[in-house]
Specification:
Blueprint: H1 4-15, E1 26-29, H2 33-41, E2 49-52, H3 63-69, E3 73-77, E4 81-87, E5 93-99, H4 120-136, E6 139-146, E7 151-153, H5 158-161, H6 166-184, E8 190-194, E9 197-199, H7 201-208, E10 211-215, E11 221-223, H8 237-248, H9 253-266, E12 270-271, H10 272-277, E13 283-285, H11 289-302, H12 307-321, H13 338-341, H14 344-357, H15 360-376, H16 380-391, H17 394-404, H18 419-441
Parallel strand pairs: 1-2, 5-6, 6-8, 7-9, 8-10, 9-11, 10-13
Antiparallel strand pairs: 3-4, 4-5, 11-12
Helix pairs in contact: 4-6, 6-16, 7-8, 8-9, 8-15, 9-14, 14-15, 15-16
Length: 443
């Protein structure tokens, strides 16, 4: 990566002819961007590639000029995110809600503080933008994404929680849960482009979307690490995430349920392939998940693809079922909570938390909330209350100090996966990727 003065010097040498400069080996039209990116990713491209844009870029001097030149309407430009409307035939449009990087304009580096942390003001801005989409009335689908490629939403900023009292933390959780419910219950499809790390509140936001597209890349991890720092998930993790994985896991309801519980009680992350296998990610593509998200949204608006409509309607039906106790798909009877309370791995997580990590209280909070969820129905209000209790505790604040000082905190390993489960996940992933490659090549 060049420093700014080095980049200018390099351009000057090109202008003086000191470095030979030739055109690309191939030029592709804009509609071949996904396939072109796939060729480059898998080494099939003949060399350098350029893409021909149909927009007249005369006079374009900034990103804002480029968006306007393409006919994109910039509806809101807030401090942490923005709302765009992309016209798509007739009066229909696609709305884009994008988390913005907080990088200073004069900086070429990206610090952790510049990422899209799910702070209280971010929750409020996200809620506001979805209200704006509803009030505008022209959008027929929403694409939820984040600027950059390093992270989607890496989680709640613990620095904010450390200066709030229990009532303020509870209010923040209640506001976030209301926002998630607005997204989940939205009357037009919401497709989320998962382009990087998503932990804590980021994972809970992923769980609220109707449809989630992700690329198979190593940097994408999801999870609920809150119990690692003496906290519990507060934006729906012990409720929505548990029900979602129990209902949509491609490895079966019991496997999905236990995987969700392990994720919360251990704080261990999951990779994108595991997230796909257990239903948190709807579709894996070889590359360029954002392009796939827009293709799905455009297909919905134009009436040529019913994927998003089916996903939205299925989620709306699921939300109604989640008000009731969870039933076993095989027996049709309510799930027995002994599936957790008598499980040897869950017992081991509790023993480790009480004897080594001093996290026994928050693990019991989380486990009790999960049990009430499956035996009585979702308990969002209870989760917000115990999130406030845990977030204002001295144990949480001590853990934050240790975490900031990079002191290792004890965390139990996740329940080992069996070889048949590994094999099944590989098979599921390859099926989704193969379908994506076939779409890219037009077969």
């Amino acid at each position: 990566m060049y420093e700014p003065h080095e980049a200018q010097s390099f351009r000057d040498k090109i202008d003086r002819g000191l470095y030979p400069f030739r055109g690309p080996d191939r030029v592709l039209d804009a509609d071949r961007i996904p396939g072109g990116f796939g060729d480059q990713l898998h080494g099939r491209a003949p060399g350098s590639t350029a893409y021909r844009m149909v927009t007249n870029l005369d006079g374009v001097r900034s990103e804002r000029d480029l968006l306007l030149a393409q006919g994109v309407r910039i509806a809101e430009e807030l401090s942490l995110m923005r709302l765009l409307f992309h016209p798509l035939g007739g009066d229909g449009s696609i709305a884009t809600v994008e988390f913005k990087l907080n990088r200073p304009k004069d900086s070429n580096t990206l610090r952790n503080t510049d990422l899209h942390w799910f702070r209280g003001d971010a929750v409020k801005q996200l809620r506001f933008l979805f209200h704006r989409i509803r009030e505008d009335g022209t959008a027929e689908a929403v694409v939820l994404t984040a600027e950059g490629t390093r992270a989607f939403v890496p989680g709640q900023n613990s620095d904010e929680l450390s200066v709030l009292d229990d009532e303020q933390i509870t209010e923040l959780a209640a506001l976030a849960q209301e926002t998630m419910s607005i997204i989940e219950g939205f009357k037009i499809p919401v497709v989320l482009n998962l382009n990087g790390l998503a932990l804590g509140g980021g994972t809970e936001l992923v769980a609220a979307a109707h449809y989630v597209v992700a690329s198979r890349v190593e940097r994408i991890y999801l999870g609920q690490p809150e119990t690692y720092i003496n906290l519990i998930p507060g934006f729906g993790g012990t409720q929505r995430l548990v029900r979602l994985m129990a209902g949509k896991s491609r490895l079966g309801s019991r496997c999905g349920l236990l995987f969700a519980v392990d994720t919360i009680l251990t704080g261990q992350p999951m990779n994108v392939e595991e997230a796909y296998a257990h239903g948190l990610v709807s579709e894996l593509v070889p590359s360029n998940s954002l392009a796939r998200a827009y293709r799905l949204a455009a297909g919905h608006v134009l009436g040529t693809d019913g994927t998003l409509l089916r996903a939205m309607e299925e989620r709306h039906r699921s939300v109604q079922r989640w008000e009731e106790p969870l039933t076993d798909n095989d027996t049709g009877r309510p799930v027995d909570p002994s599936i957790f309370t008598e499980d040897e791995y869950v017992k081991g997580y509790l023993r480790q938390a009480e004897t080594v990590g001093r996290r026994g209280v928050v693990l019991r909070y989380a486990l009790d909330l999960i049990i009430r969820n499956i035996t009585e129905g979702v308990q969002y209000g209870e989760e917000a209350y115990y999130f406030g209790r845990a977030g204002s505790s001295s144990e949480f604040r001590q853990s934050i100090v240790l975490f900031r000082n990079r002191v290792p905190l004890p965390r139990p390993p996740r329940r080992p996966m069996t070889e048949p489960e590994h094999s099944r996940i590989r098979q599921l992933v390859e099926q989704s990727l193969s379908a994506g490659r076939m779409r890219d090549t037009g077969q």
